[in-house]
UniProtKB/TrEMBL annotation, chain A:
Source organism: Marinobacterium lutimaris
Protein name per Swiss-Prot or TrEMBL: Putative tricarboxylic transport membrane protein
The keyword Transmembrane helix appears for this protein: no
Signal peptide, first to last residue: 1-27
Entry superkingdom: Bacteria
TrEMBL record, chain B:
Transmembrane segments: 6-31, 43-68, 113-139, 145-163, 170-191, 203-223, 259-281, 323-343, 355-376, 388-408, 415-445, 465-490
InterPro entries documented for this protein: DUF112_TM
Keyword Transmembrane helix: yes
Organism (species): Marinobacterium lutimaris
Descriptive protein name: Putative tricarboxylic transport membrane protein
Source organism, top-level taxon: Bacteria
TrEMBL record, chain C:
UniProt KW keywords: Membrane, Transmembrane, Transmembrane helix
Claim: Membrane is one of the keywords in the record: yes
Membrane-crossing segments per the record: 40-58, 70-87, 93-109, 121-144
InterPro entries per UniProt: DUF1468
DUF1468 domain location: 8-140
Protein name: Putative tricarboxylic transport membrane protein
Pfam family, one: TctB
Length: 329, 500, 149
């Protein structure tokens, strides 16, 4: 069977491989790729699709961007992968969020890694945390809830979609801390994701849900829930204009959930800069603003070194917080 | 209230949309039939395509519904033909589906599974059409305590599967639960049994587990059989290809009951087709399996999980459409697809966007009809897979297993893990273990622990919360009944057998 | 006779139970909102598993026939082959690794050399086309092809 030699195979294979849709997971084809460090369907998938659909719609890429998945360790597997296998890949961006910064701060990506192990490109959108109760709950504002927590922290069941040390838990812990309540003294239940927690709130199994603003829109429209506070710096527009921030109610808690991207540590400055500019240009397009709004995200507009500093500061801040609440020694 | 459905059908029956639903159904069948590449991936991969093609929202939804239904049908094929479940909901299908194929009844088995899928889906879609908003309100009443009771009930039902070797069934279930404890503890965030490997932080992926457990071990077993002709049970030659009316009628009650069970379980957020098919199978075994033929190729043992998992798949649309809460991974990605088109499912959707809801429901009806029409005549063709010689079939299984896991994880660790699990599965099978209890233990065990601890966190440690509501009391009583009654009966039976 | 296999298994399972108990007891829990915590469940499972393995030791069932000799070698061969397939999957690319793996597997299943090579080549190219074009799944080319491209 020597007729099937390697050399004779190569040409048709190359033709096939170069024909178009074909591409590589370990990005050697020169095709832009967004790696979502999770299974399909979650927030990271959304983050990648935001970039890939946006860039395609705005014709900012010659070839369509691929979205691949690498679940594992809340992003740890992808972070390690980029630091090991694809350090200098000029075509690869990886979806990240506030959760990634939190995990870096907690050392969950591996003790040897911190925010300076990758190059932070930029963020295309942001969502904000929210303190939510059912429409028939006794508390009309955050202050009333906090008063109750202060007098008896275990009298209120708080639930959210993450374990101790996750973003959702941090929201609850920071809220408690802002009112002088020890996060450890709360009654906190973790569910699998925001959807299950919302169902538990609607079913009356928990009384307070520390979720994200965007996922609440349908419930907000139908009046089944009340948002006591948005964990943003200022009030949001549109459907959210009525929701007061925690800050204006005297509790200084903010929890932005940014949706951004990083690249490998050894990506050249030129390649890095090209991506920064590409995303920046996309961010300025009105069509993209519509797309972002459809996904329930608010504008963020932090790119390049600006974003890099932002993430690094955030990691430092989280590290301090984690120490305060006793998560890391 | 029927307006929205009529409008939906009016939209769905345009030539373009019918072509889309057929194309989607075919592609979906292909996705579903390949192990590891289930509906989630099918939709994740094709969703951007629909968007890029510039399809209007209704048409895109119809395409997605076609893919979704198709992959639910396709998932059974490899269960029946190769003893390798295509997805989580198809594990129970292997129990009677594969023995049927071994008896030379692959064609009728495939036909039966298509009919049962159709019956289950149709029941569930009717339920969805009529009661969705109402059901959603009941579903949220199901809290951690009720889920815990449901898991107790499901484990109690498993005692029906004890079969020939109760000890090994139990050990298998415990091993499954142990595997489920790997990863970040969902209560405290503590890492359990991860040995500092980030690949294990999220626990062992279900797809990696079933592909390793079933596909890789199957390859090893097939090698044994091909090597040692005397031990080769092999396949009986393919007999008739069409399922008979008599067979269908013998399953009608099993299908109907299982369809209802599947739908109800599917409606609950957080439980899916795997739990639904397990509960349906064990329930049917209790009710109709008088001669103890379940597990040896009983049509009813095939029809029950098939009706249930399809009903559960449609049932999971209820919380998604009415509350905006995805009840499963697949509906989570459908939710993403809807949001892409600026459609926000939620309590207002039925009143504010009746055309979309109607169109989606109508396309689910259509998709199911199309699939039934496709699958019945094609059962014979698919059954021919079994006539493919081993030296082609086995490499195909290996390649599919690799590609399935790789496209899910883009990572080689997952493939190594799959191989390790495969060896483990092979050894267990050689020791006479059945794989289904392990998989069930894995699915149910994690849910059981989480919900117990959630319930106790809510109550602040008071165990009374576990039997506080009428729902949970009902489930506890049901669990006790299924545990005790057959045990007594079984003792009676075994004494009678011993006396012979 | 095959009770011996089950006895070996029961000892292995007992070892697993002990391992789980030790691992679980060493978990460091900063704090837990539920009274059960992450340790109790694995400990309970370990206990049940230990109990069941003791029962298995004293009441072993009928085991199957265990592979030996040439068959064992072939089984190990398949495992090594699949391990190498995984190892080279991204390095050498899908097409080459698949062609070789399929060919060797086919040969191990008694296809004869000619059929093995043909099926390896056809299957790898065919499945590649199917996955990339019909199903939109990305598969690795491998480093060698990329350097050419």
């Amino acid at each position: 069977m020597s007729t099937f030699s390697f050399a004779s195979l190569r040409r048709p294979l190359l033709a096939v491989a170069l024909a178009g849709a074909a591409s590589v997971s370990y990005a050697q084809g020169g095709k832009p790729e967004c790696l979502a460090p999770a299974k399909p369907g979650g927030g990271y998938d959304l983050t990648c699709r935001l970039a890939s659909n946006g860039l395609e719609q705005a014709s900012l890429l010659e070839t369509p961007m691929l979205v691949n998945y690498m679940p594992g360790g809340i992003g740890a597997v992808a972070f390690n992968h980029v630091n090991g296998v694809r350090k200098g890949d000029p075509d690869l961006i990886v979806a990240a969020s506030t959760g990634a910064a939190l995990n870096l701060a907690l050392g969950k990506f591996g003790r040897q890694y911190d925010a300076s192990n990758v190059r932070w490109v930029g963020a295309l959108g942001v969502d904000y945390g929210a303190v939510v109760v059912a429409a028939d709950a006794p508390w009309q504002n955050l202050d009333e809830l906090m008063k109750e927590l202060q007098s008896n922290p275990t009298s209120v069941v708080i639930g959210a979609g993450g374990t101790v040390g996750s973003q959702d838990w941090m929201k609850a812990a920071l809220m408690a801390k802002s009112g002088g309540v020890d996060p450890r003294s709360l009654r906190y239940v973790s569910f699998e994701g925001g959807g299950e927690s919302l169902a538990a709130l609607l079913g009356g199994h928990i009384q307070v849900f520390t979720g994200d603003l965007a996922e609440l829109k349908p419930q907000l429209d139908s009046g089944t829930i009340r948002v006591l506070a948005a964990l943003s710096d200022e009030r949001m527009d549109g459907a959210y204009a009525e929701i007061p921030t925690a800050k204006e109610q005297g509790y200084d808690v903010q929890w932005p959930i940014w949706r951004g991207y990083y690249m490998g540590p050894e990506v050249s400055d030129a390649d890095y800069q090209a991506w920064v500019e590409r995303l920046q240009e996309l961010d300025g397009k009105p069509e993209f603003a519509e797309m972002r709004e459809a996904r329930g995200l608010f504008p963020m507009s932090k790119f390049g070194s600006d974003f890099d500093t932002y993430v690094k500061d955030q990691v430092e801040e989280f590290r301090g917080l984690a120490k305060e609440v006793g998560l890391v020694k | 209230m029927w307006d929205f459905l009529f409008q939906g059908f009016a939209v769905a029956v345009s030539p373009l949309n019918i072509a889309l639903v057929m194309g989607g159904a075919l592609l979906g069948t292909l996705f579903g039939a390949l192990p590891g590449i289930g509906p989630i991936n099918g939709i994740a991969i094709l969703m951007p395509l629909a968007y890029t093609l510039g399809l209007p929202p209704e048409s895109a939804l119809i395409l997605l519904a076609g893919i979704y239904c198709g992959s639910e049908y396709g998932g059974r094929m490899s269960s029946i033909l190769l003893n390798v479940p295509g997805d989580a909901g198809a594990v129970m299908t292997t129990l009677d589906g594969y023995p049927l194929a071994q008896k030379g009844l692959a064609g009728p088995a495939l036909g039966m599974s298509a009919i049962a899928s159709f019956v289950g889906s149709t029941l569930a879609i009717i339920g969805l059409t009529l009661f969705a908003p109402l059901l959603a309100m009941v579903a949220v009443k199901f809290g951690p305590a009720e889920f815990f009771a449901l898991m107790i009930f499901a484990f109690a039902s498993m005692s029906a599967m004890m079969g020939k070797d109760p000890l090994k069934t139990l050990i298998g279930a415990i091993l499954g639960i142990i595997i489920a404890t790997v990863g970040v503890d969902s209560g405290t965030g503590v890492l359990r049994f991860t040995f500092d490997m980030p690949e294990l932080y999220d626990g062992i992926d279900f797809v990696v587990l079933i592909i390793g457990m079933f596909a890789i071990s199957e390859i090893l077993l097939m090698l044994e059989h091909s090597f040692d002709k005397s031990s080769d049970k092999g396949m009986a030659p393919i007999g008739r290809v069409m399922v008979s009316m008599k067979e269908v009628m013998s399953c009608k009650w099993s299908m109907l009951r299982s369809g209802v069970i599947g739908f109800v379980i599917g409606v609950l957020p957080g439980t899916g087709a795997s739990v639904a098919s397990a509960v349906a199978y064990t329930t049917e075994k209790r009710i109709v399996d008088k001669e103890d033929t379940f597990g040896t190729g009983d049509m009813r043992g095939l029809a029950a999980p098939e009706a249930a998992n399809n009903a559960a798949a449609a049932g999971s649309f209820v919380p998604m459409l009415t509350l905006g809460i995805p009840g499963s991974g697949t509906t989570a990605i459908l939710l993403g697809a809807l949001m892409l088109y600026n459609i926000q499912p939620g309590p207002m959707m039925f009143s504010e966007q009746p055309v979309i809801v109607g169109g989606l429901i109508a396309s689910l009806y259509l998709g199911n009809l199309v699939l039934l029409a496709l699958n019945l005549p094609l059962a014979g063709v698919f059954a021919r897979v079994l006539t493919v010689p081993k030296w082609i079939l086995v490499p195909c299984i290996a390649v599919l297993a690799f590609v399935g896991v790789f496209q899910l994880h883009s990572d080689l660790h997952a493939i190594y893990l799959m191989l390790i699990i495969g060896v483990f599965g092979y050894l267990l099978r050689k020791f006479g273990f059945s794989l289904a209890p392990i998989v069930l233990g894995f699915v149910l065990g994690g849910l059981m622990e989480q919900n117990l601890r959630r319930a106790l966190a809510i109550s602040g440690g008071e165990s009374g919360i576990l039997w506080e509501s009428a729902l949970s009391i009902g489930l506890w009583i049901a669990a006790i009944i299924v545990m005790v009654a057959p045990w007594l009966l079984g003792r009676f039976k075994s004494k009678a057998v011993a006396a012979k | 006779m095959s009770g011996a296999a089950d006895r070996v298994l029961s000892i292995l399972l007992l070892g697993l139970a002990a391992f789980i108990a030790v691992q679980a007891s060493q978990l460091d829990v900063p704090f837990s909102y539920d009274p059960v915590g992450p340790k109790a469940f694995p400990m309970l499972l370990s206990g049940i598993l230990a109990l069941l393995s003791v029962i298995l030791f004293f009441r072993p069932g009928q085991g199957g026939k265990w592979p030996r000799g040439a068959l064992l070698l072939r089984l190990l061969g398949v495992l090594v082959l699949l391990g190498l397939y995984a190892w080279f999957f991204t390095l050498a690319g899908y097409l080459i690794t698949t062609a070789i793996t399929v060919a060797v597997l086919a040969w191990l299943f008694n296809s004869g050399p000619a059929k093995a090579v043909i099926s390896g080549v056809l299957l790898s190219i065919g499945s590649y086309l199917l996955f990339t074009f019909a199903l939109g799944i990305t598969l690795p080319w491998g480093a060698w092809l990329t350097s050419l491209a």
